[in-house]
Amino acid sequence: MAIPIDLRRDAAHSLQEQIYTQIRGLILNGRLATCARLPSSREMARDLGVSRNTVLHAYDRLKNEGYLDSQDNAGIFVSNAIPDQCLDYVADRRALRSFDREPPRRPDLRLEVTAPANVHLDRARARIDFWYGRFDRRNFPLNTWRRLINENLSRAGSNLSEYGAPAGCHELRKAVSSHLGTTRGMNAPADRIIITAGAQDGLNLVCRLLVQQGQKVAVENPCYGSAALLLKSYGAELCPVPVDHLGLRVENLAATHASLVYVTPSHQFPTGVTMPLERRHRLLDWAEKANSFVIEDDYDSDFRYDSPPLTALAGIDQYDRVIYVGSFSKSIGPGVRVGYLVLPEVLVQPALALKSLSSYGQPWLDQIVIADFIESGGYRNHLRKLRHRYHESRDALVAGLRKFFGPDADFSGDGCGMHILWRLPNGIKAADLVVAASKVDVGLYSFESVGAYEVGDSNLRKNSLVLGYSTLSPVEVTEGIGRVAAAVKSLAA
Ligand SMILES: Cc1ncc(COP(=O)(O)O)c(C=O)c1O
């Protein structure tokens, strides 16, 4: 019987030690059963290309420890009574693992985990790239950041050498509280706010808190894929609720029997529509009646162009049912990984306990820098500048679509945010146009490529594109849409 032993001559351990460890591993592993016969020391030495003495010493050690038996001249066998203490004596797990060629059995995975489609590190970009919701690195407030980091390092005290509050640093929670008061009409006391690693981390905390295997959770159909996949990873049964030109159709909620709903009411992802006040109130009434919480993902509504800032759903919630998820990913950059939750009172303590269990809170320096940025008024100016730039690019996009595709060019979501949804001219397929545009160095993105989650086969998926404009100047937008128009013409021909 050949035994799978792999000797490394350059290893730190002697050959004898390696033979001993690997045979012991195979026995403890069950790969060498009790009473199994081992090759004679002569055979083993020949197979392994080592001296017989090396094998004999390894065998002797295994016999002395009770792993092997030799029965006079009958041969050498795995002992039929491996002492219990030997089973505890798995000193070198690495030896066990490296010779267990079968992949280890997975523990009972109850989750079907899928990666979101919008993780796009190092993606090759077209010269004119309409990727949605992207933060342009030229807009990052680098000098201010450098200064605030230095200032805060020099007065860090014990903030870097001690744990901070799991909810996040008080200065940032206070700053977020007042920012939400002025820009979203929310009364969000600092003690209801938990700082997270972006919106996704906040959503994760909420899921851990509220979602159980098989629980019905209503989502917009279509919706943000990273939220849908996260909910599914916790075992949620997603109940897709259609979206029309006013957002989620609230009247369809009752039939779902859901006890949680995830929405993007200010700028529905991906259609871009805004839910009006009347429907927002009906959503809250449903939540109260159904004893449900509403997760409001307010990812990009710092940028509203044609009207004053919109009061968040959480700002009109008289039932304390809304879990507000905010993020600095769209306003400072996703690389800073800072976001926050504003929680209904009843969820604050359990969420804090979970946050504590999962990370003990977020890095202090990142938080204090953002807090200072907000408190100094720098953030307000930064947002004003960004809003101005995006507004111009948005105008160029709308004008370009109307110029090249006529006054009836069909798009939604241009009132706010960093992308619109464009329904393509008749007969043009999204997939074909993406390919045709890439040939003229324009990056276009279909529903799927931005990670939108949709149940059923809507025309949106086949016939629409998500056009982001936040990294393009008005000139680039106009040039890009001109090239897209030429590509559409060639496809139509
Ligand atoms: C709908 C939606 N929610 C939230 C986010 C922000 O996620 P995070 O703060 O985790 O970067 C995004 C980013 O693209 C988004 O599209």
Plain-language structure description:
The protein is of the alpha/beta class. The chain folds into three domains: 84 residues, Winged helix-like DNA-binding domain superfamily/Winged helix DNA-binding domain (Arc Repressor Mutant, subunit A); 237 residues, Type I PLP-dependent aspartate aminotransferase-like (Major domain) (Aspartate Aminotransferase, domain 2, 3-Layer(aba) Sandwich), CATH 3.40.640.10; 112 residues, Aspartate Aminotransferase, domain 1. It has 16 helices and 19 strands. Strands 5-13-12-11-10-6-8-9 form an eight-stranded mixed β-sheet, with helices on both faces. The protein has a four-stranded antiparallel β-sheet with strand order 14-15-19-17. The protein has a three-stranded antiparallel β-sheet with strand order 1-3-2. α10 links the parallel β10 and β11. α2 crosses α3, α13 runs parallel beside α16 and α14 packs across α16. The longest helix has 28 residues. The chain is elongated, with a radius of gyration of 30 Å. The termini are far apart. About 2% of the residues have low confidence. The structure holds pyridoxal-5'-phosphate. The site of pyridoxal-5'-phosphate has 13 residues, from α8. Pyridoxal-5'-phosphate binds next to α8.
